[in-house]
Amino acid sequence: MKTTIAISCIILMLVFFNYPAFDSEGISYLIIFSCFVVLCFSSAKLYTSNDKEDYDSVEKKGNQLEKFDGDFQYTSNGFYNKQKKPLELIKWDEIVSVHAFSIPVLGDDKQSGLEIITDKGHYEFDRDAPGIEKLTNQLYDHLPDWNLNAPTIRVNNYGLEKTKLYERNDVERGETEG
Prior knowledge:
By secondary structure, the protein is of the alpha+beta class. The protein is built from four helices and eight strands.
């Protein structure tokens, strides 16, 4: 790119110094205009070449995030949250519901994440938690009947919004009302 800019500058200088040598002014104007166009686009590309956000790089980064365990360790029965001491197994079949939440923080910013309610406890995981992408995929794979089109409901006056992604159906588990 730098060589293209250098060659364009050299051609531009030669045309300026030898301007009367051409038979027609139109040829000189065309060469000068072409050199300015090449200079503008080349310098723009040179200064914005730091943006390497193309489809392949975004896809590669997404694949890496989906494979990254982060703060979680997975087993066939469930998963462990490594941040919690002592480690506690959250079993897939003990999960009662999964909600996506979003709450406003300081103006226009929002904190979002996942809320998991089990038979034994309540867990909240921030959207910035390492490994949350893989956790979301694992939850989707191990829990049936996800409702990805569920409406978002405003829960309180502070702006907390929740979307129910999954709710266990106790009839499917073999439990009956009695």
